[in-house]
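debug: dumping io for the single-chain case to check the tokenizer round-trip. Nothing else runs in this session.
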Amino acid sequence: MTWFWIGLCLAVLAVCLGLWVLGSPWAAARGEARTRAPAFWWPWVLALAPWCAPFVTWRMRRDLRRWGPRAGLAAHWQADRWLAACVLAAGCGVALAGAGALMGAASARIGIPAVLAGAALGFAWPDQALRRRAALRRGRMMRELPFMLDLLTLCVEAGLSLPAALHQVAGHAPEGPLRQSLRDAAALERTGMDRPRWLQHWADHADVPGVLNLVTALSQSDRLGMSLGPLLRAQAERQRSERFLRAEKLALEAPVRMLFPMVLCIFPCTFLVIGFPVAAKLLDAGF
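debug: decoded output
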């Protein structure tokens, strides 16, 4: 009976210690977690960031500077915090792979590679998710660009100057990643940066060919003194035709993409429905 109470006390102590270890990062970072990143895993990222800071390489910083603005990543995601998120995802992958190996009663020869694979996949998942988000955001920007060019053309033809038209578009265009990127770039003008530089900054961080063509055309018009109305209207028509061509290309690719699920899912069911009565009659006939 004595050993029972000793074991029970040790179990309660272990539970309290585990709750303290898991809850202390949340208690330490509750203010920043509520105001900046309300996700439940953010305090643990903050707790791991100081430990991960010495292992941050220049390549990680360069990749985060490159893909972070393109994916619309918030400014509080620094390199050490991003590495901490990767380590946290790797820990989750280890936990899931280890739990699967234990539930399946796998041997050490299978369980150890499974745990290592889970750690590698978990560590690489945030980077892949970041690039995927950047690609989706880029596609949405390409869809929004023709309408924004039409709005910019309307503002210029109404008599506004190019800086005033850009600020009107940044303030009153439909909400989306393209408007947000233009608004962030236009905010650099209030810091003293001249217009060609923040327009080039917008083109670099948007990573959209149409935005780069627009910035190049605006720079050439400033140097040559060209009229902006016809230039912007031509850019809008070009982007609209390119959007139509991209949609046509995706429509032509749809049958090829549908071929794999048809072969894998629909054709076997069809053959089963057609062939089962025939096979049953053949078996009844003695074949």
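debug: round-trip ok. The radius of gyration is 29 Å.
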